[in-house]
Automatic annotation (TrEMBL):
One of its GO terms (molecular function) is pyridoxal phosphate binding. Belongs to the class-III pyridoxal-phosphate-dependent aminotransferase family. NCBIfam families: dat (TIGR00709), ectoine_ectB (TIGR02407), PRK09264.1 (NF006733). It comes from Saccharopolyspora rhizosphaerae. GO terms for biological process: ectoine biosynthetic process. Keywords: Aminotransferase, Pyridoxal phosphate, Transferase. Its cofactor is pyridoxal 5'-phosphate. Its EC number is 2.6.1.76. This is Diaminobutyrate--2-oxoglutarate transaminase. It comes from the Bacteria.
Length: 415
């Protein structure tokens, strides 16, 4: 079977090289290859499978919808599935948090949401420049790449990426420089050469950038800086939203209300393509059709998303469970760090990382884990961080099994 991928699929493929087997089935926290071998999944579709593979609660709603010939492709037409999505999202997510947003469906992926946010911010303010942060990742299309930090991914654009300026992320200078000293000085100095920014885009926890978690006080300071200088605040919650850090939105702990929020990955509940852009009502200045996309109305994803809101966000049970499981992962990572020099525990909730000074170590640990039937990704500018992101629905037993494999893999590599 692997011969067909080598002969016909583009050389751009990557995850299939990291985990060299052919997968056939997936249930809950497990992937099964064509021979029936089970692999515990601490990757969760890069955050697209927060509720696990083929979640039975969501699957039944999807099967019922397909069986009754419910609309599949709907552009941005009004459908019952979309109405249900909006109603359940508002009732279970927005209203309990005191949030008032209009909902835009920009296309099927996270980068579609980011592109719409950047375009809208420029339209609202009449400015061009966007502020991003070191080690950020926002997507692979040109606008999203312009606010992404990774040089390899930026280089793939093949053209200059303009109208974006990077600033230091939280603790970029290891606490030696006060928060926003450079950023604010650039904003206030008429000789700095910094174009007046339309917006700031930020991940509260950088997933692809190395599991870099910002402090609540840093985020509050950033929000205040945006208000002071008339910049919109865009939070990219594509990977860290939908409960990955505990609360539904990763910015809740900071008590801020961004002007625009980008969501994708697990927003559809079941792993199907869906993205939304949340916009404060006063900023919803789009003309009809000014931003669109053929696949912005994935109705089966609306169905599974609505059920996910009902099943997992009608109360705070999942949030509390995620925080508790995350603390358990953090405890084990601290133990590993104490046992091995040159390592650092990172992250919060169930977005955790184990960073290494030696940039070759994380990849070897990922391979050792795969050999032990555990799926682990790496992240960071040099792939120096082991990234630990199980489904939020992972059982305590599965979590402990995965943590045991991580311990064994680290010891095997660093022995």
């Amino acid at each position: 079977m692997n011969d067909i991928f080598a002969s016909l699929e583009s050389e751009v493929r990557s995850y299939s090289r990291t985990w060299p087997t052919t997968f056939d089935r997936a249930v809950g926290s497990y992937l099964y290859d064509e021979d029936g071998t089970g692999y515990l999944d601490f990757f969760a579709g890069a955050g697209a499978l927060n509720y696990g593979h083929n979640n039975p609660l969501l699957k039944q709603k999807l099967l019922d919808y397909i069986a009754r010939d419910g609309v599949t492709h709907g552009l941005d037409q009004a459908t019952l599935a979309k109405a249900e999505f909006l109603e359940t999202f508002n009732a279970n997510v927005l209203q309990p948090r005191g949030l008032n947003y209009k909902v835009q469906f920009p296309g099927p992926t996270g980068t579609n949401s980011v592109e719409s946010a950047l375009k809208l911010a420029r339209k609202i303010t009449g400015r061009e420049s966007i502020i991003s942060f070191t080690n950020a990742f926002h997507g692979m299309t040109l606008g999203s790449l312009s606010v992404t930090g990774n040089s390899m991914k930026r280089g793939g654009a093949g053209i200059p990426l303009v109208h974006a300026t990077p600033m230091p992320y939280d603790d970029y200078f290891d606490g030696q420089v006060p928060d926003f000293l450079y950023f604010e000085r650039m904003l206030e100095d008429s000789g700095s050469g910094l174009n007046e920014p339309a917006a700031v885009i930020v991940e509260t926890l950088q997933g692809e950038g190395g599991i870099n978690s910002s402090r609540p006080e840093w985020l509050r300071g950033l929000s205040e800086l945006c208000q002071k200088h008339g910049m919109l605040l865009i939070v990219d919650d594509v990977q860290m939203g939908c409960g990955r850090t505990g609360p539904f939105f990763s910015f809740e702990e900071a008590g801020i209300q961004p002007d625009i929020v980008c969501l994708s990955k697990s927003i559809g509940g079941y792993g199907m393509p869906l993205a939304v852009t949340l916009i404060k009502p006063e900023h919803d200045v789009w003309e009809p059709g000014e931003h669109n996309g053929t696949f912005r109305g994935n109705n089966p994803a609306f169905v599974t998303a609505s059920e996910a809101f009902r099943q997992y966000w009608a109360d705070d049970s999942l949030e509390k469970s995620t925080i508790a499981k995350g603390e358990r992962v953090g405890q084990v990572l601290d133990e590993i760090v104490a046992e091995h020099g040159g390592a650092m525990a990172k992250g919060r909730g169930l977005a955790r990382g184990l960073g290494f000074e030696d940039t070759n170590v994380a990849g070897k640990i990922s391979k050792a884990a795969f050999d032990r039937k555990l799926i682990l990704e790496t992240s960071g500018p040099s792939s120096e961080v082991v990234k630990i992101m199980p489904p939020l629905t992972v059982s305590d037993e599965e979590l402990e099994k995965g943590l045991d494999i991580i311990r064994d893999s680290v010891r095997a590599v660093l022995a």
